[in-house]
Amino acid sequence: MPSKVEKWKDEVYGNEIREHLMEFAEKGWDAIPEDEHDAWFERFKWWGLYHQRSGQESYFMMRIGTPNGVIKPGQLEVIGEVAKEYATGPVDNPEFGEAYCDWTTRQSIQLHWIKLEDIPEIFEKLEAVGLGTQQACGDSWRNIVGCPVAGKDKHEHVDAWPVAEDLHETFKGNDDYSNLPRKWKVAIAGCDEGCGQGDINDLAFEPAEKDGELGFNVRIGGGLSRKEPRLARDIDVWVPPEQAADVAHGMSALFRDHGDREDRFNARIKFLMDEWGPEKMRSVLQDDYVDFELETAGEDMRDQYSYNTGSQDGHNDHVGIHEQKDGNYYVGLNVLVGRMGADDVLELAELADEYGSGEVRLTQRQNIIVTDVPEENLDEFTSEPLLENYSPDPSPFMRGSIACTGTEYCSLSIVETKNRQVRYARWLKDNVELPEDHKDFHIHLSGCTASCAQPQIADVSLRGMKTRKDGEPVEALDIGLGGGLGDDPRFADWVEMRVPADEVPGAIKNLVNNFKEAREGGETFRDFVEDRDEETLAEMVDPEETDYHDPYMHNTKMTWYPYAEDDDMQASPAPTNGQGEPLPSDD
Amino acid sequence: MTTDVHQLDDGAWISVNDSREVNVSDLWLLARSDFCGCETTDFLAEGFVKVGVDYPDIQARIAGQCIACGESGVTDWLTVGRVVDPESGEFYGVVHESVHFPEKRTRLAHPEE
């Protein structure tokens, strides 16, 4: 029997949601019939709007999908202006102020505290410069990810940007694929460093050569969510760039027709891959969904991948100053936990214009890249005061930090994340020294098993939990080690569970010190973890209290907003009207 | 009116008559449960897997783990609250910190179908 969500989708879904959304926005929050809230909030996701968690009713997270993370000249300024004008809530965030943008691990943008009544104006401003929220959430083609410097990169074999842009144009708003059983995440990359992160996507195009021609090998069924992480599997297909869209049509139609619509927990294509295996996946694609003979896989470049491999060679991220193939430079700036104040966004937009082409790009590590900077502008650009906070050469603990949204706004999260990870990174920077040869050390904090911070592919993986300390429930984290991508991708081993959140920095300090003492020769951290059993590793992670102070140990989910002076659920002003004034309650 | 119950957002919360009523991340004390070997399971709710109505009870099976011993899995049916008067539809949540007794159900109620 189809799920309740499928029933709602059958009634209204896809492009047609927009006219309803606009009507509700015009009439105001109260216009959404109370007994239709769940159905409409589920549908609004398709237009990039996610109703914020309990205690924050009537406010939405808005996601803007920027394919491949490309923010064209003129767009960043509008994003900053929209954030400043509309993404302000009743209470400021103590670390980030009143308005900010989140750069996400899928090269998208998230704004919070968006009011329904403001949506038409926001859409108008975004769409005037070619930006949009369509399909940024919901059961459809999500934002396409890839190498953030596609088209610029010296390591590139195929320019994947025109292909990504073509896929974006083809599948955004396409009624044939607007109602899939679940989200559909696609990655495409043409460089030999592996920064498309194809292994953790539903559909991945990876660079490969076949009979002297460059194109893409196809992998299917990756993903990290829940406690069921999967690496995408090779289905033995190669496509030239001009046929990538045909295979994408076929694969997403296959998913549309064969994905599980009865159980949303079993709906992602990774579960169909579990059931079918790559051979059947290929044969169904060939027999029923493409009208040309699929080529077998070409020779891939995975043995050259360096991105997030822990190898300490090559590109482990895109932070720093790197030469482009046209002789200009791109400057990757570290944005701690991906959150940037709206004023800083506006200033960066000006700097990108002044020193580069005005284009910036988002990475899958929540950072931002200013592209097309001529060599003669580099010194002046990197001397700008803004870059003191968004450095191209930050501490490994700052550049390696990723955090999801957490209990600040998210219904699913168990713990506070972004502000906590900011505090962790600062403390680790001041108190822990990595070995000289370790410039990259990735710590990913995810508030729950949905894995939006991609914890399983980090050197140190942190996942939201609870425990008791002195009898009282406190926020805690599971600690995993040794995850990463590359030719030999590996998910983290969870070695120490339910560590009180205030003991995690001490645990990481002890782990790093134990690693420095016990490593053999030039052993990298990732190899070190791989070569030791869980018990040995667990002993090395020795949680302890330090002078690190954690203000979020209490149950932040029970608050209406964790940083409000009166954070009690009953003190929430929500729901509010279009001016942010509390609406009368029925009680 | 019929009581409308479902889990949403990947099992993040339970909706009762289009109102968010029960959230993940709370700790529930489970007694006489075979979830784990602990005398009382100190259970962290991580996701609502199934929901149903056994009038007047609103029930759920919850994915999560015992934070004392680490055992993880899905509970039997737990009463998470009650809608005593289906006409008003008003939901009364149970106190999750109190002791609860998960039970195997002999019938499964799907109020929406």
Task: Summarize, please.
The complex is a heterodimer of chains A (587) and B (113). By secondary structure, chain A is an alpha+beta fold. Chain A has helices spanning 4-11, 17-27, 37-44, 75-86, 119-128, 161-171, 244-258, 269-289, 342-355, 378-382, 386-389, 396-399, 418-431, 504-518, 525-530, 534-540; strands at 49-51, 59-65, 70-71, 100-103, 108-115, 145-146, 186-188, 203-210, 213-220, 233-239, 299-300, 320-323, 329-333, 339-341, 360-362, 368-373, 401-403, 443-446, 460-469, 472-481, 493-500.
Radius of gyration of chain A: 23 Å
On the 0-100 scale, what is the average pLDDT of chain A?
A: 96
Count of DSSP H/I helices of chain A: 16
Q: Biggest sheet of chain B, in brief?
A: 7 strands, mixed
Which helices and strands occur, and which strands form pairs?
The complex is a heterodimer of chains A (587) and B (113).
Chain A: H1 4-11, H2 17-27, H3 37-44, E1 49-51, E2 59-65, E3 70-71, H4 75-86, E4 100-103, E5 108-115, H5 119-128, E6 145-146, H6 161-171, E7 186-188, E8 203-210, E9 213-220, E10 233-239, H7 244-258, H8 269-289, E11 299-300, E12 320-323, E13 329-333, E14 339-341, H9 342-355, E15 360-362, E16 368-373, H10 378-382, H11 386-389, H12 396-399, E17 401-403, H13 418-431, E18 443-446, E19 460-469, E20 472-481, E21 493-500, H14 504-518, H15 525-530, H16 534-540
Parallel strand pairs in A: 6-7, 7-8, 17-18, 18-19
Antiparallel strand pairs in A: 1-2, 2-5, 3-15, 4-5, 4-14, 8-9, 8-11, 9-10, 12-13, 13-16, 15-16, 19-20, 20-21
Helix pairs in contact in A: 4-9, 6-7, 7-8, 13-14
Chain B: E1 5-8, E2 13-16, E3 19-23, E4 27-31, E5 40-54, E6 57-66, E7 72-74, E8 78-82, E9 92-93, E10 99-100
Parallel strand pairs in B: 4-10
Antiparallel strand pairs in B: 1-2, 2-3, 4-5, 5-6, 6-7, 6-8, 8-9
